[in-house]
């Protein structure tokens, strides 16, 4: 299972500028459904469904800087919150500077979404129907906290540690 955790995030940057005169189009928006970032009862900021999301649908992706796992682990040392996902034994995605709202997806022991790694991309899919305004959550699985961080998801049956 990929390693993931959250970091306090800087304010969202403005949307990207129009395509340069080179004729290249800007990258496609990886978000398939509207996702809003706002304060979370779980931790810091959270990603919330901006519209109804049907079960088993791709919600979107988390993009970021592709770095080595070694660099990712160095960056994560000593931090309580990070936005890094290991996508293989050798590569990780650091979403700390990303504008993708799904990077604020918090952990829950009873998540409504699942994180999938496909061809080096970090994708999030709804596990069940998600109502507008509901916080999007995934089970982080193994994380750099190694069971030392108290889980605050509040879910029935919470395991208590990350």
TrEMBL record:
UniProt keyword annotation of tRNA-binding present: no
Subcellular localization: Chromosome
Protein's UniProt keywords contain Hydrolase: no
GO cellular component: chromosome
GO terms, biological process: methylation
Pro residues composition-biased segments: 8-18
Keywords: Chromosome, Methyltransferase, S-adenosyl-L-methionine, Transferase
Lineage: superkingdom: Bacteria
Region feature (Disordered): 1-32
Domain SET, residue spans: 33-141
GO molecular function, one term: methyltransferase activity
InterPro entries per UniProt: SET2_Histone-Lys_MeTrsfase, SET_dom, SET_dom_sf
Pfam families: SET
PROSITE patterns (alphabetical): SET
PANTHER family: SET DOMAIN PROTEINS
Protein known as: SET domain protein
Organism: Piscinibacter sakaiensis (Ideonella sakaiensis)
Lineage: Bacteria, Pseudomonadati, Pseudomonadota, Betaproteobacteria, Burkholderiales
């Amino acid at each position: 299972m990929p390693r993931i955790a959250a970091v306090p995030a800087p304010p969202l940057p403005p949307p990207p500028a129009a395509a340069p005169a080179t004729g290249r189009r800007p990258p496609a928006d990886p978000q398939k459904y509207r996702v809003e970032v706002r304060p979370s009862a779980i931790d810091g900021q959270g990603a919330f469904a901006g519209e109804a999301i049907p079960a088993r649908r791709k919600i979107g992706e988390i993009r970021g800087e592709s770095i080595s796992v070694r660099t990712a682990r160095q960056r994560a040392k000593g931090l309580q919150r990070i936005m890094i996902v290991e996508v293989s034994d050798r590569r990780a995605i650091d979403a700390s500077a990303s504008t993708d709202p799904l990077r604020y997806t918090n952990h829950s022991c009873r998540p409504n979404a699942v994180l999938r790694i496909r061809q080096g991309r970090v994708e999030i899919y709804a596990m069940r129907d998600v109502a507008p305004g509901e916080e999007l959550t995934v089970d982080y699985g193994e994380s750099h906290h190694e069971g030392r961080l108290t889980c605050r998801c509040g879910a029935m049956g919470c395991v208590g540690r990350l």
